[in-house]
Amino acid sequence: MSKGLNAMQLAQDVYGEEAMESLGTALSSVLQQGGVVFLEGDLGMGKTTLVRGVLKGLGYDGPVKSPTYTLVEPYELVNLDAYHFDLYRVGDPEELEFMGVRDYFTDQSLCLIEWAEMGRGILPDADLVVSITLLSQGRHLTFTGQTEKGAEALMELGARLTP
């Protein structure tokens, strides 16, 4: 976290796949300048569905699948390069060095990372962390801004989500 910045949080409950994708679309509106987003949650929590909504909101209209076996799936958008990482199968963070992971993190990229803890020590700090937990009939998402960029994105997202 940047010095002098207290982590900012926002919470949202969603019910169903369509609602998760819609939340991702809303999130995309505050990620148009890129950044690093960690997506935390157990298997089946909807991380990839959220990513699908983000990419859809950024103008991508093709299929979005979890890159469990490829580790990263690139998406070339009009003004941004987006990368969806799934590090679930990474055995050692050093594996990321061999694939040149640092090259993905530029000022013109949005990196959406599932299972970021598998890359600890190699990955840059997240601007935004999205934690997804199970509710009885849905999902509870907690968004935490960890940098100035992340905090600004959350303030804007909060304004968009408030009726």
UniProtKB/TrEMBL annotation:
- What is any one of the record's Gene Ontology cellular component terms? cytoplasm
Matches recorded under InterPro entries: P-loop_NTPase, T6A_TsaE
Q: Which keywords fit this entry according to its UniProt record?
A: ATP-binding, Cytoplasm, Magnesium, Metal-binding, Nucleotide-binding, tRNA processing
- Locations listed in the record: Cytoplasm
In its UniProt record, a GO molecular function of this protein is: ATP binding
Q: What Pfam families does this protein map onto?
A: TsaE
| Gene3D superfamilies documented for this protein | P-loop containing nucleotide triphosphate hydrolases
Q: Name one GO biological process term.
A: tRNA threonylcarbamoyladenosine modification
- What family is this protein classified in? Belongs to the TsaE family.
Protein name in UniProt: tRNA threonylcarbamoyladenosine biosynthesis protein TsaE
Q: Which organism is it from?
A: Marinomonas algarum
